[in-house]
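FIELD: query
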Amino acid sequence: FIKHSNVTRIYKLSLSMCRCTAWIFNKGAHSNYSEEHYKLKFWAYIIETFFAHKQNMVLQWGDTMTNPCKSKSLKFKLDLHIVVLNDDEMVVDGMTAEVAKTATKHKLYGDKLKSILASKRHINNFLKTVPYITAEDIKKLKFPIMQIMGMHVHVYVLRLPCRGIYVVDNEFSFSFPCNMSVEKYFDLTQKN
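FIELD: result
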């Protein structure tokens, strides 16, 4: 699903940052970083590059409210959400993401709850736009939720296994790619 060239670009950037601006990774620098620092210095380019091959997706950054949430007076400002388009028309609000400087209890649970409730609204809104979707296809729907806390990311999905029951699954976690595995991957991709 991901173009190899996009992954290579992500690793090249990470490797370059590790080699050329290593100071931005030290703990002293991190103590001065804000949520915006993490978003702009580390994650925005990686996330934009990851989705670059998807011409039908628009990444909306910066405390924005989605239309499905606005329509129900849910004033959730999301750090990032992805809008899926069809012929330049919005089809559905998809993935949500929240960014935090650190994993405090309030940010961890508060941001996760906000993203889950927004995603639940997105699922419900999507289902209204496709009234003839089968029960089997509804079970296959997964709306991703990304939670970025400093240099670490957790990805969850919200799904609807049966009517009225929403389930959040832990999909995977990862950290900003700045270690020897980045250099090993980069060396391997240059040989192929």
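FIELD: remark
The two ends are 19 Å apart (CA to CA).
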